C-alpha cells in the first residue's frame, strides 16, 4: 500500500523546484526503470503493479524493495499521457569535473533549452560512445521528466556535468581540440579528429554563444545538399549533435 | 478587426477533425509564415500585429491581404505556449504520386507517430536535399501544429505523400534500390548509393514493419560506438533518418 502523502511527495518531483530541493527525480517506464536499477545510480523508490512485477521481477537486483501499487495510483503520480506500470524515484548523481576522462571525447552543450532535445542528445551520445557531456549552467536540467523519457535509459550511463563553459574550455584547450559548428566552418567530413576532442553544440535558436565561439579552435559545418536556393536555414540541435558524433566516429 | 466567429473558426484547426474537414491548417511564427507565403502553397488568412507588419511587410508578396490583430487575439488562437505575433491559415497541398521525380531520392516513413519527430524529419530532409517524403497512411499528418512548428518552414518546400507503402514499394522496386535500417544490416558508410534510392525509416517503437521489411533490397545499420556492453538499444527515429540522409550524400 502507498499512502496519499507518499503519492503527493513523489508527484512534487514533476516540478523543478522540488527536484532541486530534494535532489531526487522521477523515472518512468520499463526500459528506463530497468536501466536505472541496474546502473550505479541510487534508487529510493520503486513502484510497480503486480502485473509488471510478474513480468520483470527477474531483471531487478535482489536487494531492491518494490512498493506494489495499482494502475490508478501510478496514473495519479505519472507525468505521461499514457502511464506505464512502473515508476521509480532516483537520486540525482553529482558528477564532478575531476571525474572527466582525459582520453575520451566530450560533448559540450551550450545552452540547450528544450527538454526533448536534451534527452535525445543524451541517448545519441550513449549510442556513439560519448560518455561525458558538459553543459552550460543555463542548459535544461537532464532530470526534467521529458528529458529522462527521451533518453530511453541512457541517463543512467552518460555522465552529465553542469559548469561555467568559459572556464572549463579555457582549461581544456591546452590538451584538446575544440570543434564547434558554424555556417562558415569547414566540411566536418574532411577533418581528422583525435581521440579526446571536444565537440560543441549550440542553442536551438542562437547557436554557439559569442564567448564560447571565441574558444573554438576548429570551426566545422554540416554541408547542406538542398537543390534549390530556398531551403532550410539550419538543423535541429539534436540532429546537428548526432551528425557531428556520427562523423567523429567515421 | 477580427470577429469572434473567425477566431473560433481558426482555433478549430488545432483539432485534426477540423483540419480534415476543411483541408486547412495553421502556421505560426515569423520563419514559418514567411516561408509559407513565399511558397507555392495557398494561404487563406494572414493575421499579424501592427508591430510585426512594420518589421516584415517588405518580405510579404504584394497580393496578400493581412488582417490586423492584437497580441491578445493571437494568443487566443495560438497553439504555442509563447505565441508569436503572426499566424496564417494555409490550404493542405494535395500531392499526387505521379508527381514523384524519378531521378531524385525518396525518404519513406513507415508509421512515424510523434508529431515532433515528423517535423524534425521534414526539416532535416529539406537540409539534405530530399524533396519527396512518402509516408504510410498510419503516419502522423504533417499538418499537425507541432509538426509544422518543428519543420521550421520546411513543410513549404518538401512534398509529403501518404499512401499504402506495400503497393508503392512494389511499384518502385523495379527502378530504385530500397534501403532500410535494421540491427543486422551492413554499415551504412560502406555502401555506394545511387541517385534515386529509397531510404526507409521505421516506427519509433517497432522499427520497420514486417510487410515493408520484405520489400527492402538493402539492409543497412548505423554502427554504435558504445564503449561498454550496457548501452543505448536504439536511436530516435528522427536521428536515424538524419544520419542515413547525411551518409547518403557523403
Brief rundown of the structure:
2 copies of one chain form a homodimer. Chain A has 250 residues and is an alpha/beta fold.
Task: Give a structural overview.
2 copies of one chain form a homodimer. With about 250 residues, chain A is of the alpha/beta class. The first copy, chain A, contains 10 helices and 10 strands. In chain A, the strands form 2 sheets. In chain A, strands 7-6-5-9-8-10 form a 6-stranded parallel beta sheet. A 4-stranded mixed beta sheet of chain A has the order 1-4-2-3. In chain A, helix 6 runs parallel beside helix 7 (about 145-150) and helix 6 (about 115-125) packs parallel to helix 10. The longest helix of chain A has 13 residues, at about 115-125. The N and C termini of chain A lie far apart (about 50 Å). The mean pLDDT of chain A is about 95. At the A-B interface, helix 6 and helix 10 of A face helix 6 and helix 10 of B.
Topology, element by element:
Two copies of one chain form a homodimer.
Chain A: H1 4-11, H2 16-22, E1 24-28, H3 30-37, E2 43-48, H4 50-56, E3 67-68, H5 71-77, E4 86-91, E5 106-109, H6 115-127, E6 132-136, H7 145-151, E7 159-163, H8 165-172, E8 178-187, E9 198-201, H9 210-213, E10 218-221, H10 237-249
Parallel strand pairs in A: 2-3, 5-6, 5-9, 6-7, 8-9, 8-10
Antiparallel strand pairs in A: 1-4, 2-4
Helix pairs in contact in A: 6-7, 6-10
